[in-house]
Amino acid sequence: MGRKIYITGAGIISAIGKNVEETLASLRNKKSGIGILHHIKTRHQEYLSVGEVQQTDEELKDFCKASLNKIHTRTSLLGMLAAAEALKSAGIFDLQEYRTGIVSATSVGGMGIAENYFSRYLDANDSGEFLKNINTLDCSDSTERIADYLGIKDFLSTISTACSSSANSIMYGARLLQHGIVDRVVVGGTDSLSRFTINGFHSLKILDPQPCKPFDAARNGLNLGEGAGFIVLETEKSLNGKNVLCELSGYGNSNDAYHQTASSPDGAGAFLAMEKAFRRSGLNTEAISYINAHGTGTEVNDLSEGLALERIFNKKLPPVSSTKSYTGHTLAAAGGIEAVLSILAIQNSMIYPNLNFKNQMPELGFSPVVKSEDNHSVNHVLSNSFGFGGNTSSLIFSKVNS
Hints:
Layout: E1 5-13, H1 20-28, E2 34-36, E3 49-51, H2 57-64, H3 74-89, E4 100-105, H4 111-114, H5 118-122, H6 139-150, E5 155-159, H7 165-178, E6 184-191, H8 195-203, E7 227-234, H9 236-239, E8 246-255, H10 268-281, E9 290-292, H11 299-312, E10 320-321, H12 324-327, H13 334-348, E11 380-386, E12 391-398
Parallel strand pairs: 4-5, 4-6, 9-10, 9-11
Antiparallel strand pairs: 1-7, 1-8, 2-3, 6-7, 8-12, 11-12
Helix pairs in contact: 2-3, 3-6, 7-13, 10-11
């Protein structure tokens, strides 16, 4: 099993709050962040439902105290805020004491800036001077900006595996600790909304113009979202008696190898990822208190995941819900954001309701939780993140000494 992996800090920003405190308040009050798009101009703006972070880029820069002389993408700014909160909550202020790394995930990167120059790129008469402004396009740039902001220099890596990206960054960080490459690591992901992703998902015909309805028989697609979620992983070597939020007890990754964008009909990859996570944790399925499902609200994904859940749990499921009905689908940031929400569920004995659910799916024998469940003993949470290309990842978070 190797070393135990502890979580000592968490940070988050999304459509339901710019930090852990605001996020928890929104969850307690069943306050969704899904609404109309404000910060991006697009022809889909009037009817599109998204989980947009309320703050403008300038407000995010102000929160970060970021230099206005540098180009900061929205993706980087979101990541800077959440990762800084994670380090602060872990009580880490001296980065020289232990080797500290960062593994950050993103899929959008700096596309929100680069896409503004597309028409000029096609103009043969343009001087090309604008190209100096899009050196922030690549995904790794956001990791470097976050690392510079935090002062992390020992280890940097970027992961981009679509919607499973930040779940995979958490797994990679755990492996770095297991092999002694770093002593502690900030892991998670960040993504911002852009016209590129909005139009891309629109072309797939899987965007719901209304607030999404995960696991509902009448589900009509997903709501895109944006944000960042980061956690701090440590082993006993660097704990020094500090507060532990919970343990990362299990993780697994697999691949459907079925389709570029669709999950396999029977959820084979999802089943294998969950199976690996359970094997690593040493837990049986009866130990799980709550499932934070991937639950995008699309016709194919929810059925595929639902069938995989019924198979792994032998149709005896604990409470299930999708928090994407609060935040929207934040793409590469989803696994990081939902990791923080899973930790909050353990810490606050909460199970979140699946908003907007009304109609039981006829193909499944379970339905998601629809009412808030406070004072509910939450010892182990299974969190799923499944991405395009069939990349499927599952994490298990456990209360320490539960």
